[in-house]
Amino acid sequence: MKNIMLIGMPGSGKTTLGKLAAAKLELQFVDMDAYIEESLGKKVSDIFAEMGEGYFRGLESASAAIIGQTKGQIISTGGGFVLRENNITEAKKHAVLVFIDRPVEAIAENFNFADRPLLNTVEELQKMYEARIAKYRNAADYVLDAKGTVEESTDKLCRLISQIYLTSPMFTVIGDPIAKSLSPQIHLPLLNHYCEEPVYEKTLVLSDELEEFVDFVRKQGIDGFNITMPHKTAIMPYLDVLDEHSSFIGAVNTVVNKSGKLYGFSTDGEGFLLSLQHEGISPENKNILIAGSGGAAKAVAYSLALERCASVTVLDRNPQKAAELCHMLQQAVPELKTEYAALKDIEQFAPSADIFINATPLGMECGAEWSDLGFVDMLPKTAFVHDLLYYPRVTELMKKATDAGLKSKNGLDMLIFQAFAADELYLGIPLDYEEHYAKLKILLQQNSMLS
Fold first, then answer.
1. Region of 290 on the Ramachandran plot (φ > 0 left; ψ -120 to 50 alpha; else beta)
2. How high is the mean pLDDT of the chain?
3. SS3 category, 203
4. What is the bridge-based pairing of β-strands 261-265 and 224-227?
5. Of 26, 44, 387, 413, which has the maximum CB count within 10 A?
């Protein structure tokens, strides 16, 4: 995430607007003059008086280099920052420069000449503006018209920064192994629509490299990353903030970097609900039967519970794991009816299920198969079967459901929609999912890995 450096006349509002915008956007704010004063233990006016302007400009260059090592900050500079070419050169290595262009008459209304070492009168202020305006404009990557109120100018600055952050954002997905990940193919089509030159890569991260990778993200300003196996749980201690869903299921699949502060999310549950919604199915008042109690099952079950489903029954080869998930669900939604049992007892629960979800690897190509799919014939004729596997495209469970006259689908839509939810977190703006869904699904279905 880029730094935003504010340049402009003394009194133009760089510090005020920078602080307010940083608070609204949850970014870190740095006042370069205050940083210099704290570093030397002297006020800027005293540094000017004792050591001269040339020395102070050198301090600005050095400070720009040091402050710029941390990404995702809003940095206000002194009014004369642009007077030394090296200041601009150093600043552009680490930041996008925004010129806060406020008219002199507006600046003069609240200008404190006593704290300004180079100014004594409004006339001197006007002359300074005329002498520097070309330098400000030439140095700036963007110009912000700050004629309005503080509130109006702050809103303008927030919108501009949001726009800047949609230019060349950097994302990656981490895991081990990672070579076959489809994440770039899923995320980039949508990111390309909203951003200029987005980057989305695959990064192999071994378990003993996780902490080092997180430090790298903070320092280099990578805007966010997705997580796949085996790091979804292991990443959690290294993050600063966890959302409700990831805290509940004990796993994170999306991390957003806000000024070096890392926020962890789980979008799997939202992806599943959007997948259901796309079929015109509401989970409200439905009886849910889930095979499996791992991370995917937890994400799905928790989201369904919050959507006021009537009941959740969890089946697992290890009934104790199913019991633990049911206990967690009741802790979160006390009124929810839950039940658990061994997976081998599935036929006992099939007749009352409105939605059956396979959250196990059973049926995955080159993996374990269902020992018996006879339970599908026992599901109500109105039941919906959702296999979270997306490879192969049509699983044995889905074939059996079709033979039984039931509607079914695989996990490809969930995969797509959880990625869209992650992209919405990355970009901080609402996205039009439907506009991109059909195109992306066609692209993925053409992928040989999903054939």
1. beta
2. 90
3. strand
4. unpaired
5. 387
Q: What are 34-73's pLDDT values in tens digits?
A: 999 899 998 888 888 888 888 888 898 898 889 888 878 9
Pairing of strands 28-31, 73-76: parallel
Region of 406 (left: φ > 0; alpha: ψ -120 to 50; beta: rest) is beta
Q: Return the closest-CA partner of residue 9 out of 89, 118, 86, 87.
A: 118
Helix (H) or strand (E) holding 48: helix 44-51
In the sheet with 224-227, reading across from the earlier edge strand, the strands are 199-204, 170-175, 224-227, 254-258, 261-265, 241-242
In CATH, the number for domain 280-410 is 3.40.50.720
- CATH of segment(s) 3-165: 3.40.50.300
Burial zone of 86 (CB within 10 Å; 0-12 exposed, 13-18 middle, 19+ buried): middle
How many other β-carbons are positioned within 10 Å of the β-carbon of residue 73? 23
Query: What CATH class has 170-266+415-443?
Result: alpha beta
Section 260-271 average pLDDT: 94
Amino acid at 272: F
* pTM score: 0.71
For residue 348, give every residue at least 6 positions away whose Cβ sits within 8 Å of its Cβ, in sequence order, or none.
341
219 has catalytic annotation: no
Nearest one of 170, 2, 194 to 98, comparing CA atoms: 2
The domain ranges of the chain are 3-165, 170-266+415-443, 280-410
**Residue closest to 254 by CA, chosen among 98, 17, 85, 424:** 424
Q: State the average pLDDT over residues 259-271.
A: 92
